[in-house]
Amino acid sequence: MADPAIIPALPAEEYERRERRVNSSLQSLWDLLDAVKDPEIPAVSLWEMGILQDIAMQGDRVIVTITPTYSGCPAMTVMAEDVLQALADAGYADSEVVTRLSPAWSTSWMSEEAQDKLREYGIAPPGQGGGNEPVEVLCPRCHSDEVRRLSEFGSTACKALYQCSACGEPFDHFKPI
Ligand SMILES: [Zn+2]
Question: What CATH fold (topology level) applies to the domain 12-105?
Fold first, then answer.
């Protein structure tokens, strides 16, 4: 029986990611890239999603490291283009996006704030449990647990399609991995 008073520890990778930002000398660049949102979920930034990993300078060149969410996620190309565009708009013409695949991204890297924003956007968040634990899917509209899964795949492969039996709302659930 899980004790609800115990807050699950932040995964080490996510802790280190936050430390990289806090300790970075490039704060203005981190702030700048807060404007880049997940193309599939425009309410949430790449940082909040746990996708944006690191920012470094090599001379005048900005090197941005990102970790894809789901392998083969079609939105990754768009994300990289959006990062380069945001940097170019701010005068950083020479930039590069590097993709880091290991350690693999996990929904547990998403912040509480990101999960709240997902819910407000109408998507049931993955929860903090991690890939192997069952998650309770609640309707993001009325918070009922009387929901049923209509399809393993919702608007994108990383989401499943549900419908709420209480209010009738169909919604996506971001699958935990
Ligand atoms: Zn509902």
Answer: GMP Synthetase; Chain A, domain 3 (3.30.300)
Listed in sequence order, the residues at least 6 apart from 37 whose beta carbon sits closer than 8 Å to its beta carbon are 43, 44, 45, 46, 82
Q: How far apart are the CA of 140 and the centre of ligand 1, in A?
A: 7
| 144 has pLDDT over 80 | yes
| Higher-pLDDT residue of 156, 72 | 156
Domain ranges of the chain: 12-105, 123-174
CA of 169 to the centre of ligand 1 (A): 6
- Residue 73 neighbours by CB under 8 Å, 6+ apart: 157, 158
Distance 170 CA to ligand 1 centre (A): 8
| Strand pairing category for 170-174 and 147-151 | unpaired
- Tell me the pLDDT tens digit for each residue of 99-128: 998 888 888 888 888 999 999 999 999 876
For residue 50, the CA-to-ligand 1 centroid distance in Å is 28
Helix or strand holding residue 119 (H, E):
helix 112-121
